[in-house]
Design brief:
The structure is a single chain. By secondary structure, this protein is mainly beta. It has one domain. The chain has 1 helix and 10 strands; from the N terminus they run βββββββαβββ. Strand 6 and strand 7 form a beta hairpin. The termini are far apart.
């Protein structure tokens, strides 16, 4: 578990971009960011979480994440986004990202929750 920094984490089955802070308690302090647009994430909320409820999927180095304090947003590097997306899709980053069924399913980068856009 990283002591400080950005990471993709699974919390109770949902994947989030988080900033991990260590505390002097047995709980982790997480700043949770919601996906906003392609490589942009905006601060959503803070949470104190039991480490057993968190699984770090991938630590994100400082060179791949730019935190903009004024707007409380994080911009991830495009190459990181493409790599994570291709790993999730099991193919190249240029692969088709939409599937059609009852509605068009649009998948956010890095395995974030699906957003459904109905016709």
């Amino acid at each position: 578990m990283p002591t400080e920094g950005f990471a993709l984490a699974s919390i109770k089955g949902n994947v989030h971009l988080v900033h991990v802070h260590t505390t002097h308690t047995p709980l982790l302090e997480l700043r949770i960011f919601r996906h906003e647009f392609i490589t942009i994430f905006r601060f959503s909320h803070s949470a104190l979480v039991d480490p057993a409820e968190v699984r770090i999927l991938e630590s994100i180095g400082d060179k791949y994440a730019m935190y903009e304090e004024e707007s409380d947003t994080v911009v991830l590097a495009k190459d990181l986004t493409e790599r994570l997306l291709s790993r999730r899709a099991g193919s190249s980053p240029s692969s088709k990202r939409y599937s059609y069924g009852h509605g068009r399913q649009m998948y956010a980068p890095m395995g974030m929750q699906r957003a459904y856009a109905y016709r």
